[in-house]
């Protein structure tokens, strides 16, 4: 099952779909779901190969993930969708928004966190390195619970999923489809001011990818700035949801 709904809010007029980072799980968004439940019916995506989906086959490309999540979200598109993705999840959110728009089902907005614009490429090969180097990368970004990193047996169990996610995002290449810009929905970008993987200009380059309104906010912190800044981030997302709702439908 791809979709997690930790705090159902069926009376809300919009659904916020949260997509985690490489190696992340739906539970990463549990506190955000609780905080944002007054504003949206929050859904979190659980990728295969982790937690209760640990025994399922991994998907090693962004395209495969996009196709699978798109199908999983079809039953949930009875009301407007807003995508909120962090890191790899931001790119997946972008590709999902493109897919929905191509299918004639525009989304209400896109919130991209902790990721440079898809048009900005950096050559990275973490997924090709050994286990120790992969673990060092995770530690450097502070994206995995320190208790997990200290548990050797558990860590070895989740490394295949982490490596698969890194492969997906590091081999991803943006492919124009002839539509310039590719999106019509408003886009909000959130980033950490000292993120070693995303510079401010790289984050601001998202503005080129939509004809809709663009909003940019930066926060103190690194790649996972949104964890210590949870209250500020949820407030920003709530503001985005309200602003997106005021934009006339295309």
From TrEMBL:
Ranges where the Thioesterase TesA-like domain occurs: 17-241
Keywords of this entry: Hydrolase
Classification via InterPro entries: AB_hydrolase_fold (IPR029058), TEII (IPR012223), TesA-like (IPR020802), Thioesterase (IPR001031)
Tree of life domain: Bacteria
Family: Belongs to the thioesterase family.
Protein name (Swiss-Prot/TrEMBL): Thioesterase
Source organism (scientific name): Streptomyces physcomitrii
Classification lineage: Bacteria, Bacillati, Actinomycetota, Actinomycetes, Kitasatosporales
